[in-house]
Amino acid sequence: MKLFDSHCHLDDRVYDKDIDEVIKRAKNAGVAAAIVVGIDKKSSSKAVAIAEYHEGFYASIGIHPHNAKEADDTTLNFLCNIVGNPKVLAWGEIGLDFNRMYSPKKDQEKWFIRQLEIADELNLPVIFHERDSNGRFYEILKDHFQKGREGVIHCFSGNKTELRQYLDLGLHIGITGILTIESRGSNLRNLVPYIPMERILIETDAPYLTPAPEKNRTHRNEPAFVRSVLQRLSEVREEDPDYLSDVIWKNTCKLFKIED
Question: How far apart are CA 166 and CA 95, in angstroms?
Answer without folding.
Answer: 14
